[in-house]
Amino acid sequence: MTRWFHLGLPRINRSYLSGFEGTPVPLELTRTTRDPGADEAHDVFHRFDGPLGQFLDWTERVRPGDVDRLYLAQARVADLPQPLQDDLPTPEIAKRAGRGDIYGASIWVGVAPTYTPLHRDPNPNLLLQLAGAKAVRLFEPSRGADVFAKVQRRLGRQDSAIFRGDEMMQGEQKRLLEEQVWKLDAAGGPAALGCLEARLGRGEGLFIPKGWWHSVKGVDQGVDQGVTASVSSAAGFHSSLVLTWSKVNWWFR
Questions:
Q1: Are 53 and 40 in contact (CB under 8 A)?
Q2: Considering the entire predicted model, what is its pTM?
């Protein structure tokens, strides 16, 4: 996997991936807009398939504060060219878990802020962080169901929480889910919400049991946070440096 990213900094190795730029991958575009006269901005969300090269081009020109955010989200490993599949071998621990029935593996690559709202998977999930860092908040089944149901009642809706639907990624549902999971803990931390929080860095993994609810965020690692040796300034990233967050999931039964 080290061929995808430069060592030391979570930056895409364009020279290696350039040989696969025509590969179609699933992309998610989030655009922040503000209606005339409106006090607050809102997000417009769109999914589409595009060439890997389009995503790589975007990572080289993105700057902090840009209104457009592109995310390579849930690309099936089995759909990638064979050399890229070979870079993502299934961990032995996943092969030996449960019945050893690994029915899916996906990779996610983005530039913070990346975000996956509160949801639950139909089967156990092994998450491995490949580059950058992510924060994961986890709720046991009944507590997570209560949080999701509270948001649905406020919206007067009954959406599915198993799939990462468009309704979760924009508008009032996105705002309320983020508020309930990430913004109401105040000084009490995750425990005040009845959840656990894990911080994953490069090479670290997390097992998510069946039925456990979770939400995932890319963690900003700019120099102004004092967390890592990324090159950042008030004017934005240097043109040669883009910090990248990447993870891969294996689902099994």
A1: no
A2: 0.79
